[in-house]
Amino acid sequence: MAGHAPARREFLSNGAALGCCLAASPMLTPVTFASAPHDHRLVVIILRGGMDGLDAIRPLGDAAFSTLRPDLRLNETDRGMDLDGFFALHPALAGLMPLWRAGEFAAFHAVSTPYRGKRSHFDGQDVLESGIGLEDRQTRSDGWLNRVLQQLPGAESETAYAIGRSDMLLTRGAAEVADWAPDAALVLSPQAQSLLEMVMHDDPLFRDATIEAIALSGTDLAAQPGRPAPRGGDMMNAMRENMRAARGGARPASIARFAADRLRQDTRIAAFSLNGFDTHSRQDKSLPGALERLAEAIMTLRNNLGPVWERTTVAAMTEFGRTARLNGSGGTDHGTGGSMLLAGGAVRGGRVLTDWPGLTEADLFQGRDLRPTRDLRAPLGWLLRDLFGFEQHVIENAIFPGTEMRTDPGLIR
Amino acid sequence: MRFDREMADIRFGCGLSPRIAPPRDIQQMIDQLKGPDEASNVFPIPKTETILELARASRAASQQRRSASTEKSREDAREARRSVRRRVQRLALDSLANGFLRRALTEDGLRERLCAFWGDHFTASGKEARWRHARPAYVETAIRPHVTGYFADMLRAVATQPLMLHYLDQHLSVGPTSRVAQGNRTLDGLNENLAREMLELHTLGVDGPYDQSDVRQLARLLTGLSYNLKQGFIYRPGFAEPGPETILGVTYGQGKGRLEDIHAALDDIATHPSTAAHVARKLAVHFISDEPAEALVAHIAARFRDTDGDMAAVTEALLEHPAAWQPAAENVKRPVDFIGSALRALDIVPRHIPKNDPRKMLDLLIMPLALMGQDWTGPSSPEGWPEANEEWITPQRLAARLQWAMSAPFALRRVLPDPEDFALGALGRAPPQDVIRAARAAETRAEGVGIVLASPAFQRM
Question: Do A186 and B403 touch (CB under 8 A)?
Fold first, then answer.
């Protein structure tokens, strides 16, 4: 488990009240303000529940598709937006069309993690976030994005941010990763801060999380547009403010705004997850909302990153695809192959990259799922090489063990 | 490493209380557990039948609105809908308040902890409005009566609960060659969700000796399990896939689907040695440590196997093992345990809980729970709440705990105890000296009490 490291600058401004906590914190490395030596930004979005890649990026050009998805209303508006004459984009992703036209959006199709077999969310997400197949692993794994940080020379605690209320395996590991939810905030008197320090001192888990919570709350990071930063003193009012902000949940837009704010500064890597892709029934009703939230998150990043967008790559991936056929309830069950989406000013987009397996009965994996023709870790590996300059053997051995990267898809401009 | 009265209340109960003495010994804990369920009589939580009744009333109000033709009848229909909404809100807030009051005032804290544990093991929650607040009733109906019974009976109970069937889509599953599917060749209507989670999460565990074919076969066997709002659980033979089905090498049923065949399979899976091992580890992780002693896990698993999953005996196996009484408190309380034990230490009684003020309930309990990571309507995945300490003590989740500790006790109680006395009561005989010093040094009682509740000594169990 990584130490929870506070954002450096905020930490220093709060340092006076923290006394010996400061000395005990993992931050007591020589203070420098150098940012990571690489200028690229990477945002990883985990789509939880298993996004149906066949519905997100629809292979309308494959004759077998219409028999698999008879419920898809095939009038012009509901079919989706044509991408390349073969694939079409789900209507709920319409917000991304400007990126497609600008060549800043690409999709990989018929890809998957190496996970096969029981089609469990939990194992599937475990493989996706650890970047290692279950059989290639001896012990409980760290996350692949954490291993990226371990390989980055000059990476600091603020180089990577995990954003949102849930802790992700993706960023867990030996390298320090900051984490924060935009809807959390803590207001304490200076005396309460120093007493907390006293009682937390001997318990690293509590101590480090407290330091970071205080550091982040002491800045305007916790404030959201339209909401004033909480003032000290009146704790009950502060809690009310928190509650009010949280009532709507941390929406993708507020997460993406927070991420953009960090990425414009010293942060190089950000990660968060979006839920709601486990569409077992009435997929025509349940999937659009989840896809719209994804499009909203990506477009909020673009709109808030300014010129940094040109150096940004967003990769959205999921634990598995879903069954090729609709089930009896108009939904889809857990499957295998699916799609991975890339967006960003740095991306050489305007392409659906795939070694298309076809959709006839014989083409389907185990007679039911889109057959994965490429390990999604391979394109991710090329992406990491292009963004951070890693050698191929570092990627194949340290970051994605058990992966063969094969041919370079040339993902970055 | 042996029994300790205060540890018994902190680690296996709902925390220390200034008015209720901790258990004398393990025998008393087991006797209370097997005795009458006093807490549920004093602080009742409605059962599934009430949820169904409200769902029926809601449906009737919608129909009334659709068929209304005059302004008067439209207004009547709107009033009927408002009335149902008020009753649902009442039910949800009462269930939440009584759940916490049980923890604050019970003499049988182990029962509350076991109900939470098994309710989480068999996680189900509402995916649409009418089921949104059904989880407490589900636990009350299917889990609570079975915490000292047989595991197999609890498995049968949850597998026939409308909320579980709804949550894991079982009511939508149709046998591919069932009577209903005949003449409709287009779709294979099987839904594997319940079958898969039953093997992976409820019984054998993900490392268990099953494969995709067992999932598929069990899904076929489970077809027919369904519910409606009038009767609750129903078995629909027309949806059932004709047998036989073979699961883990055992063949069930022949021809027409029968509920008895499902029961037989569930009984076999419930008493499988892999289920014993899976359940034993989960218990040890939940109550003792994220990395429990293997001897403890083996001891519990052996008792499970020897008794065919008699859960009173299994619980006793946990309590009687020396490793259960390791001095180090390794686990962090979950938000519900944290708030519940804080209310208990604060000597909260029913008049302190603002259950008739939805706004205050939201600010003092519902939103804090969500910010601490434990939404009151249930976890977001069938896996239930996470166990690892690191999942709960992240900066933002801890911030919510600290904020609650500093502000909620005063908001609920108005009159707060002396912080040093409070520390001695809440932490037991040997509180850390740092916490006593901090409690003494606080500027206000609210901050002093807050510091005690925020201390790792209180937050670990």
Answer: yes
